[in-house]
Amino acid sequence: MAFEKEFLVSASSKQLEEWCAKRGFPRFRSDQIFRHIHDKLALNVESLSSLPKAVKEALAEDFYAPSSTIDAVAGSPDEVEKLRLALCDGEMIEVAVIPMNEKRTLCLSTQIGCPVGCRFCASGANGLVRNLSCGEIIEEFLYGCSRIGAKCDNIVFMGIGEGLLNTKELFAALEKLTGDFGMSPRRITVSTSGYIPGMEKFASLKREYNLAVSLHAPDDVTRAKLIPDALRYPVGDILEAADNWSRSSGRQYTLEYTLISGINDSVDHAERLGKLAYRHHAKINLIPYNDTSSQFRRPALRDIERFEETVAATGARVTRRVEKGKGAAAACGQLRAEKRHKEQ
Ligand code: SAH
Ligand code: SF4
Question: Which terminus of the chain is more exposed, N or C, with fewer CB under 10 A?
Answer without folding.
Answer: C
